[in-house]
From TrEMBL:
Protein name (Swiss-Prot/TrEMBL): Tryptophan synthase beta chain-like PALP domain-containing protein
GO biological process: isoleucine biosynthetic process; L-serine catabolic process; L-threonine catabolic process
Cofactor requirements of the protein: pyridoxal 5'-phosphate
Domain called Tryptophan synthase beta chain-like PALP: residue spans: 4-302
Amino acid sequence: MPYGELARALGVKDVYLKREDQHKYGSHKGRSIPLMIKKYFKEDGKTDFVISSSGNAALAAIHAAQAHNRNNPSKIKLTVFVGKNIDPKKLKLLLLTVEDANIKIEQVEKPKQSAFQIDKDSATKILRQSTDDNALLGYFELAEELDKIPNLAAIFVPTSSGTTAQGLAEAFWTDNYLKLKNRPQIHIIQTNTCHPIAEAFVLSSPYEGEVSPRGGEVVRSLASAIVDRVAMRKEKVVEIIKTSGGSGWIIDDKQIMEAMNLVKETCKLAISTNSALSIAGLKKAALAGWQWNGPVVCLVTGM
């Protein structure tokens, strides 16, 4: 829905917040993870799944697995690997969400490696959006919803692996899904501690605050979901963002907090640090002189 006071504060004609935090599976990952599980179950007969995540993807996978098991006689199993240093609030939410004995959450030192090992050594299927193009399909559905906004000019996407941005861009800018009416710019936003894709659009590098002064330890951003430093999708994401006329933006913690406060003041909404990246990115773009003749969408992605 549009938020006029926020738009005026940003100096933008129209701003819409796409509330993916209100999705039934908790976030924008609810567009993709359930579709992946459904595909691998129906087409490949997979019944065991594993995922390494401490946030939105894990939550979506738990919800999707439980929904499947409630509605199907053939049950599936899901293992969620989380790190030892997971945010206690996130861990509590994940544990409270589990209502099915076929789903387990395990804290390990190296979640991603643990998931890879199970995927390699057994019939278990890893749910990994960063490399699996089946993950893109769920975001085509999101694009179809956004296309209902007349004269949609741009979409700002908090970005880790780039899967969401690539899925949206392909839906709007290629012919492999539907011929949508709008051709919006796609803008990605990453943090000053993890920006392997966004840096392709920025001339200056490295960025202040990227590495702590304590001998190379990586500083963590408040937007803790932005963690993919490998960015396997980088080449494709950069190419299609340029095709769309969009860009990439790098945001620090101060800008995240300013965006959260701005949304609270103008929209009376409390959003997560990860969601705030989209508003912070739009603000930075507007201050840099970018202008749009139509509405701009900021994705509110979830926790």
